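Example for tutorial group B:
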């Protein structure tokens, strides 16, 4: 273990005295090797005195560094540089499906119904697909199809293809977000997005949303301070199932354009199975928007393909950085996707899936609402359900053989929201089973309400 650096030496390297400034400077020192693994850090009190700031500020900086895996704290024994800095784990993502696969009817996973995925056409012949290292990363015919699909919405300056929507969001955020940068997200939102932002050391700011999308007044307040990215899901927002309206997109784009350093990153994770029309801030602020379109839920998760459209400078920087690693997504899979986008049987299969998912989702929401249970789910195949006590609801549903995703990991500050929620994935749930599911949830709600009433007496 290296000797403990003096608080004065560390303070001299920290120019910004805010919590994020302290965390960013210490993180840079760790990355540069100036603070090696196992090094004991000065106490919070000593470093605060050397910086001329409060212990609360240093404590917050230490919490930031712990969350991204840069340091480890051992209570009164002190804080140390982690042996493997930067090994933060996706804690929220791992909390979504606690009993997945062990219950009779698992509605926690958020995956499409395999029976509704289109049948794969024959793989393209080897001679039809470029195989060289210097060939374009995106097949020209696939790019043409992507641009045609987006044309009613907007004309992206540049297009590329990566390995799924989370890969796209990951690559965009790693380029756009630096340690301590502010990122605005919908609250609640998809837990892996929050995990990713935590690993990046971003300052995450949650904003509210209604059935039309992010609330304009919330975004306006959030963008009063310099912000790197607004991260949103334009259709079938996970977990609430709501979709942004065209009118709301225009309002949000106008607010975005008044914040010159901010880029919107849109994750259209449902793609072709969405019932809502295409919508994007790119239509009104194309120079400030990167739009991601996934094909996993519509054409098959194992295709691992998503398209990114946006300003030339941003997309080309993503492509250039990727050239130092995987360089391109399999052109064989790109060829397969291009075939599926034009094959009439595949097109019809995706249309049937979209209609079927809508019927299943609507049946569950309607059955729940008839029983007095508040639930939303206007698009995609997730239903967001309000429950009086989240943990008790999950246990009671499990006793009925039903698996659901807990609501807490979807919130920016788990435990801060009042009441509770569970997310149900209705993708593979037959319509005739909706009343049975709704009865189980309503029963759980009544039992908890009765129990609380008796305890209150």
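The residue assignment follows.
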């Amino acid at each position: 273990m290296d000797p403990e650096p003096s608080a004065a030496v560390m303070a001299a390297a920290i120019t910004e005295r805010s919590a994020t400034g302290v965390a960013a400077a210490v993180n840079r020192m760790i990355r540069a090797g100036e603070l090696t693994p196992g090094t004991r850090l000065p106490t919070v009190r000593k470093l605060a005195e050397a910086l001329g700031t409060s212990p609360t500020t240093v404590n917050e900086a230490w919490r930031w560094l712990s969350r991204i895996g840069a340091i480890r704290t051992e209570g009164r024994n002190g804080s140390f540089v982690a042996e493997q800095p930067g090994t933060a784990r996706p804690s929220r993502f791992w909390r979504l499906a606690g009993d997945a696969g062990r219950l009779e009817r698992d509605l926690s996973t958020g995956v499409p119904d395999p029976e509704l995925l289109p049948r794969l056409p024959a793989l393209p012949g080897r001679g039809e697909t470029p195989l060289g290292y210097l060939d374009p990363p995106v097949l020209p015919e696939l790019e043409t199809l992507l641009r045609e699909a987006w044309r009613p919405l907007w004309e992206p300056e540049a297009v590329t293809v990566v390995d799924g929507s989370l890969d796209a969001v990951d690559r965009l955020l790693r380029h756009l977000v630096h340690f301590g940068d502010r990122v605005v997200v919908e609250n609640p939102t998809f837990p892996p997005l929050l995990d990713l932002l935590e690993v990046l050391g971003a300052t995450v700011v949650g904003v509210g949303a209604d059935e039309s999308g992010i609330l304009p007044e919330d975004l306006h307040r959030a963008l009063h301070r310099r912000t790197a990215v607004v991260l949103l899901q334009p259709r079938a927002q996970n977990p609430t199932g709501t979709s942004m309206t065209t009118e709301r997109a225009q309002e949000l784009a106008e607010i975005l354009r008044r914040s010159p350093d901010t880029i919107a990153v849109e994750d259209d994770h449902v793609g072709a199975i969405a019932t809502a029309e295409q919508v994007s801030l790119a239509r009104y602020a194309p120079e400030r928007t990167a739009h991601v379109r996934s094909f996993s839920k519509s054409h098959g998760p194992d295709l691992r393909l998503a398209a990114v459209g946006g300003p030339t400078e941003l997309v080309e920087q993503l492509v250039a950085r990727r050239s130092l690693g995987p360089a391109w997504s399999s052109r064989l899979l790109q060829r397969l996707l291009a075939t599926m986008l034009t094959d009439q049987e595949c097109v019809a299969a995706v249309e049937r899936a979209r209609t079927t998912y809508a019927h299943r989702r609507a049946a569950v929401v309607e059955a729940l609402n008839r029983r007095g249970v508040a639930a939303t789910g206007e698009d995609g195949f997730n239903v967001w359900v309000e429950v009086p006590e989240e943990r008790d609801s999950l246990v009671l549903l499990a006793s009925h053989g039903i698996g659901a995703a807990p609501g807490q990991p979807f919130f920016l500050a788990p435990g801060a929201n009042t009441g509770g929620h569970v997310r149900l994935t209705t993708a593979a749930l037959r319509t005739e089973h909706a009343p049975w599911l709704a009865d189980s949830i309503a029963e759980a709600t009544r039992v908890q309400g009765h129990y609380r009433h008796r305890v209150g007496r």
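The radius of gyration is 24 Å. Compare this with the pattern of hydrophobic and polar residues in the output above.
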